[in-house]
TrEMBL record:
Residue ranges of the TM segments: 343-364, 436-455, 461-481, 605-623, 635-656
Signal sequence annotation: 1-33
PROSITE patterns: TAT, VWFA
InterPro entries found in the cross-reference section: T2SS_GspF_dom, T2SS_GspF_sf, TAT_signal, VWF_A, vWFA_dom_sf
SUPFAM superfamilies: vWA-like
Record-linked Gene3D superfamilies: Type II secretion system (T2SS), domain F, von Willebrand factor, type A domain
Main location as per UniProt: membrane
A GO cellular component entry from the record: plasma membrane
Pfam families membership: T2SSF, VWA_2
Protein name (Swiss-Prot/TrEMBL): Tight adherence protein B
Length: 664
């Protein structure tokens, strides 16, 4: 049996359906209006018959595709025939204008590198991308190009320092874009210009700001502005650039929002079409263009004023310097004003110190060398020679001698001089103490200059590192050379003793045997035994001469040999047999030392790997992912971790060194 609903229920159901349909009809337009995609018309160009522009839609987190059949346009209230073409059918270029002033900080630069990487990942391949950076000065780092790797490389080298030359940077970016196709800038800054005000006061700041705004308007360049929040934020100036350039302003308070804003700016370039409108008859002068349509199912409506009488070509200020720093190389350094004050003043100081030292050496008679004084005194006793006034020979050799003499006076009487001279003697370097001091001074000056130039972003840190390296490396190198020569002497000593023993067995005296060693033994033994033989020939005891050689080479084996020779000469015996026994003992000790070295090779290799692996990974990560590694010195916890890691590395190095080091 079928149950029919009562008539009252049927009437209520019909009434509900009617009300639902009416509500849908009433509220559907409101919902549609709320979902309208914002957009602008960029690069408006007027001719006698047409008005062309680029439709730019901003959907935020997605790319929109315009439906050409849905596009309807009016000019001055009259229908205008619209022709839609793909955005890639025209040339497109954009300039990244990056603020690198001191207020951005190291964390701000890390944010920029991450954001630009996101921008390059979404920007269409046909769009040329360039970059302008600005601090106290501004310049075109990379001209518009499709080589994304060059942009990434240039952004990776940015460092924050100095003031904010915002107005000059905008004008340089506009000029670098040229006049062809749809052009835009993506401006990231934390505030207004600080350079123009310093140079020209309030009036100069106003004039430079207006010049930058006029450059955007005349060139018809779209400006997408990202306002990075900081204590120096000045959003009014940035909004003016976006308004004149027909773009938008995105406020970013952290790294994630900056990255999202850059990615959105990249997607805007992929949500474009070229629009050409046929001018309707009877519409002249100022008018309004209205364009409607749908993109990826969403409606858009754009309304913008246009001067139909403005048929002049796009203009770019020719006076703006657009030299590409990366492509064309550095500017010529012939002009003194081209040198940065941060580099000019230290350079002047170094030159002044050098000239002062040379001048003092030339005019002060106390710096005259002893050799010159003796020659001058002897020449005074020559026959027929009248006393002549003192005349200094100003040449390179004389200056060098005087500087060395100064070094000798400084080194004289110091406790470290004796040790330094012993190392120089052991390393077989024919330098005096004064010459060594001059070389160390030059090493410090050169290291400071190299560090200052190499770390231009942090010149004081570079100079400090250069100072440390200049002070540490020369003595370390001297000790290394001396130790290497001493070790080589120890290696050939057993063979030398066998040669002496063989010569003694052949009937030679000890001095004759040493003379044979000086002639036939390998270096450095030949030279050292030759010096010992020379000492004995001028009156020194042969045992004392050999003992001096042992001290000079810091050779414990030679000390034992000298002791054996002394004992034999005092108590008698067969010296040749004694030397053979000593040589055999030294060879056995050397064999044992090499065996221990071979057995501990695995441990030493493990120590080298454990020490070098963290350093190598750090350097590799710095190259491939600088943003990630830079957290170690741009954040508080990163600095704490870095300090702890360095301390742990130092402790580990000393611990592993003691573990694998075995004395024989």
């Amino acid at each position: 049996m079928t149950v029919r609903p009562p008539s009252r229920l049927r009437r209520l159901a019909v009434l509900g359906a009617v009300l639902s349909a009416a509500a849908a009809t009433v509220f559907a337009p409101a919902a549609s209006a709320a979902d309208t995609v914002p957009g602008t018309l960029s690069d408006l160009r007027v001719t006698a018959d047409t008005v062309s522009s680029t439709v730019v839609l901003r959907a935020g987190d997605k790319v929109l595709q315009v439906d050409p059949a849905s596009v309807v346009a009016t000019i001055g209230g009259k229908d205008a025939k619209a022709t839609v073409a793909a955005a890639a059918s025209q040339a497109r270029s954009t300039m990244l204008v990056i603020d690198t002033s001191g207020s951005m900080g190291a964390s701000g630069m890390a944010t920029v590198r991450t954001a630009v990487k996101q921008f390059l990942a979404v920007v269409p391949k046909d769009v040329k991308v360039g970059m302008v950076s600005f601090a106290s000065t501004s310049g075109v780092d990379v001209s518009p190009t499709t080589d994304r790797a060059r942009i990434s490389q240039a952004v990776g080298g940015l460092r924050s320092q100095g003031e904010t030359a915002l107005y000059a940077a905008v004008q340089q970016a506009v000029a670098a874009l040229g006049t062809e196709g749809e052009r835009s800038i993506v401006l990231l800054s934390d505030g207004g210009d600080t350079v123009a005000g310093l140079k020209g006061g309030a009036a100069g700041d106003k004039a430079q700001r207006q010049a930058a705004l006029n450059a955007l308007a005349k060139a018809k360049v779209r400006a997408e502005v990202i306002a990075f929040k900081s204590p120096e934020s000045n959003g009014t100036t940035l909004k003016q650039f976006a308004s004149v350039g027909g773009g938008s302003v995105a406020n970013a308070a952290n790294s994630a929002s900056v990255g999202a804003a850059f990615a959105a700016a990249g997607r805007v370039l992929d949500s474009q079409v070229v629009l050409t409108l046929k001018r309707p008859t009877g519409v002249l002068g100022d008018a309004r263009i209205v364009v409607t349509g749908t993109a990826s199912g969403q409606p858009f409506a754009i309304s913008t004023p246009v001067d139909l009488g403005d048929t002049a070509p796009v203009e770019v200020e020719a006076s703006v310097d657009t030299r590409p720093l990366v492509e064309a190389g550095p500017p010529p350094a012939s002009a003194l004003t081209a040198i940065s004050p941060a580099l000019l003043y230290p350079a002047i100081g170094v030159v002044f110190l050098g000239v002062f030292a040379i001048g003092v050496a030339l005019v002060n008679p106390s710096f005259q060398t002893k050799k010159s004084a003796r020659i001058e005194a002897i020449e005074g006793y020559g026959f027929g020679r009248a006393p002549t006034a003192h005349k200094q020979n100003v040449n390179t050799a004389a200056i060098g001698q005087q500087l060395v003499s100064m070094g000798d006076q400084i080194m004289e009487g110091r406790d470290s001089t004796t040790k330094t001279m012993a190392l120089l003697d052991r390393a077989d370097l024919p330098w005096r103490a004064g010459e060594w001091l001059v070389l160390r001074f030059l090493a410090v000056v050169v290291a400071i200059a190299v560090g200052y130039v190499a770390l231009a972003a942090l010149p004081l840190v570079g100079a400090l590192i250069g100072l440390v390296l200049g002070l540490v490396l020369p003595p370390v190198a001297l000790k290394f050379i001396a130790k290497r020569r001493s070790s080589k002497f120890e290696t050939v000593l057993p063979d030398v003793l066998m040669l002496v023993a063989t010569s003694l067995a052949s009937g030679f005296s000890l001095l004759q045997a040493l003379d044979a060693v000086a002639k036939d033994a390998p270096e450095p033994a030949a030279k050292e035994f030759s010096r010992a033989l020379a000492e004995s020939r001028i009156g020194a005891d042969v045992s004392d001469a050999l003992d001096h050689m042992a001290q000079r080479m810091d050779s414990p084996n030679m000390r034992w040999t000298t002791m054996a020779i002394r004992i034999q000469r005092e108590v008698g015996g067969n010296l040749g047999e004694t030397l053979r026994t000593t040589a055999a003992t030294l060879r056995e000790r050397e064999m044992l030392r090499r065996q221990v070295k071979a057995l501990s090779a695995e441990g030493r290799l493990s120590a080298y790997i454990l020490i070098g692996l963290p350093i190598g990974i750090f350097l590799y990560s710095t190259v491939v992912n600088y943003d990630y590694v830079s957290l170690l010195w741009t954040t508080f916890y990163g600095i704490i971790m870095s300090i702890g890691g360095i301390i742990s590395m130092v402790i580990g190095i000393f611990w592993m060194r003691n573990v694998v080091k075995i004395e024989v």
